[in-house]
Input
Amino acid sequence: MLYHRLPIPPDKGERIRMYHQVKYLSGRHRLWLACFDEGAQDERDRAQLRQWCHRCAIIPNSRMNGYVRGGWNALQGGTITEGFYETRAMHDVVKRWSAEVRFDAAFAFSSAMAQYLESGSFGRKILDLCDFDSHKWTCFAKESCWPMSAVFQTEADRLARRERELIERYDRVMVVNEREVSRIAEARLRRKLVVIPTPVEVDSDSESPPIPEEKILGFVGTMDYRPNVRAVLWFADRVWPELLRHHPDATWWIVGRNPPRFIRMLAKDSRIRVTGAVADVQKYLRQIRVFVAPLRSDIGIPAKVLVALAASKPVVMSSVVQAGLISTQNPPYGVADSVEEWVETLDDLLRNRERCREWGQGAHDWVREHYDVSVVMPQFESLLIETRCPEEVLV
Output
């Protein structure tokens, strides 16, 4: 398996997906895994990864060198994304392993890593695009001013062409939800796409945790990620002041690493807490009364929403977030888009602890049915092995 970053610990969206892929397969197959490492992880994480794998290559990749390679690749007509992650060291590892072992299946995560499996013999080849990076860059272009809007749109256009090439060349391509499938118009390409949701670990305990006494709203996400920044700023500007009219004793926690200065400045309001990086997200989730997900960009699905639902938290989300989830007739969460809808829904939850309990229990049961590791990971495994049981898996 090939990953563009260390797939451990499960502390952010795509890494939650990676972590469960590797952990699940490690107990069932012999894994050969190569990944990049920007040096920010704990050595214990690297040791755990090596323990799970038969062979493990962790290759340093500095962001500065990546930007240089990405920029140079773009000047040559390629994509920034692929250039950022293209190194001789990774090519050498994959070439050496493919010469030593007859792999039954090979797996690459993201368009950035797909390049390494395009030559050589690897048996069945699976690519996890998760969500289409080309769409993400298009969103960034629309939100930016010139000249960056032009840079981002160029990257989006080049990646869109590249993604279609990769779908052609790989045996099967995974995406996170049906919305991502709909981005591909060509029927022959759509037939190669398979929806594999991002899994989460759901506690088997059917009893709901106690509802916190304090009126704490919570947002959890990486805070240098553009969609998260936009969501938090919109909520702070439009919803938060109106909600305080009804609940002046409410507080709002913004939990996540690398908040930029203008996010940290929100904490000038004593009722807003900006935590930065935290060691244990679950500790904060236990104290939150209601989880909010006011995202405005239709990119993938925020994994932390699934984590909150699995933790039996009442969640209020935008319709954009809801559209990324498995559809259900009676959703165990709230959906709001306008300021009025947000305030009305949150006001009800902050006044009614029993409603919080009902929503939380429903959320827990729903996520357990559709997104639990025990449900999702067998689907992933069957995609890799088809009808055979491979001994050697390059991941």
In short: The chain has a mean pLDDT of 93. Residues 82 and 112 are 5 Å apart (CA to CA).
